[in-house]
Amino acid sequence: MNGKVGIILEGGAMRSIFTAGILDYFLDKQIDIPNVLAVSAGAYAGMNYVSGQKGRIMDSVVEPLRNEQLLGLKVWLKTGDFFNMDLLFNRIPREESPFDFEAFQNSGKRFLTSVINCNTGEATYYDKFKDLDEFLHIIRVGNSLPLLAKVGYIDGQPMMDGGMADAIPVRKALEEGWDKIIVVFTREATYRKAAKGDIYNSKWVKLFYHKYKGLLKAIDVRPGLYNDSIELLNKLEKEGRAFVFRPEGIKLTNKESNPDVLRNYYKVGYEYADKRYEEFMAFLNA
Description:
The protein has helices at about 15-30, 40-50, 55-60, 75-80, 85-95, 100-105, 130-140, 170-175, 205-210, 215-240, 260-275, 275-285, and strands at about 5-10, 35-40, 110-115, 125, 150-155, 155-160, 180-185, 240-245. By secondary structure, the chain is of the alpha/beta class. Strands 1, 2, 3, 4, 5, 6, 7 and 8 form an 8-stranded mixed beta sheet that branches.
């Protein structure tokens, strides 16, 4: 396949189980996308696609919910993180559902993921990882949302979830020179961010993170950047340069903790990819 083809994976915490369903369909059909640009929880789905571990999302996220406290107020009060970050980014990928880092490194695919530098407000992208420790640390920091997780540090810099800087990095894909851009959204087609933003655009966030001027600036411009990215993708779709997957007929929620509901998210993603298989292949082969 043309090396100038890539896929952007939007985040969304538990909504990314939908993304995992699509990517597992790709594995079944041996659809090899050479570039993977994963934001936030999109990285937790994308890493398994790159390592070729079909179904690992079930073993690493969905099934543990039957016996483990992965998210919620109790976890937040105990650890300071709404999601059990130590479990998700340490114990599970190392012991309970091992992530095949060697296969990931030798896949031939380029995997990029992002964090936001809280001082500058800019996205920092990583595509090289010296070992599993560094990889899991970057993925963890890249999934650390304001209010829901503690600030992480990479090379001494305060960093958090990359989606705060650019949730749909289509401009980054264009800078990379991709001729064809595939995007997996975890929100419905009609979703747009309100002009005043979301929960992050509040006086409490601004008070709590007052020393991180870059993060606060990114929060202010985030709604406009998100909505502009969708408009740009709509234009690229019309030009035949982009192909978009979105959940249809279902509204996914980012804090869903029912494993049976999450299995359905996965099934919806897998079946949606199957439904659009011929259309998608025509796009790739055009």
